[in-house]
Amino acid sequence: MRSLRLTLCTGLMLATAALTPAAYAEDGGGGIAVTPSSPVPGTDIALRVSGCTARTATAVSAAFVAEVRLTGADGTLVGETRIRTSLQAGAYDVTVTCGGADRKARLTVVEKSPRPDQPTHQPTTHASPVAPVQAGGGGTAHLAAVETGAEADEDARATGPGTGHTVIGLLLAAAAAVAVVLRSARRSRGTG
Questions:
Q1: What is the Cα–Cα distance from 146 to 149, expressed in whole angstroms?
Q2: pLDDT single digits (tens) 17-52
Q3: Do residues 70 and 58 make contact, with C-beta atoms less than 8 angstroms apart?
Q4: Rounded CA gap, 43 and 119, in Å?
């Protein structure tokens, strides 16, 4: 049963990721997408790199709390990180190393606007980890995040994944779910 639940959750995550628009960093065609497109300090972000033939890659930036390990298949790698809380607003370089080649992009961090009911002083300790442990596996939750109207970039929506990607992802998820159900049924009958 756990395998079925894992398969269904993975399929749902893939379908959601295919439908979620991402803004492309200013990379000149390098295929590096950042969600949300203009993060504020302390924000969790998701990175997606397309056109990479390797199964893993790394992304580094002075804006990140730690190096990002990107994983995936079929030329699309994903990973997540957090923007440093003590970071000043501005443009920061992002370097993705994929298959021995470097790709560069620029990430624009915007200033956090204070709410009227919030004090304007800065905390004296780090609000986010300085060097988090790469525990693996659970870092894909932010791919399911939905952008608000203020964060959405209309140009990114037009260049994001299309209906074909969504249909293929849903078909793959359905096929995996059917395979798990059939295997579970065979095991319960003892004919495995």
A1: 10
A2: 444 444 444 444 468 888 888 899 998 999 999 888
A3: yes
A4: 19
- Residue ranges in 86-162 assigned as alpha helix (H): 154-159
C-alpha distances in Å from residue 43, one per residue of 40, 88, 149, 181: 6, 13, 17, 39
pLDDT tens per residue across span 139-174: 554 454 444 444 445 544 556 677 888 889 999 999
| 169: exposed, middle or buried (Cβ count in 10 Å: 0-12, 13-18, 19+) | buried
Bridge partner list, 23: 34
Strand ranges, E, within the chain: 23-24, 32-35, 44-50, 56-60, 68-73, 76-82, 90-98, 101-109
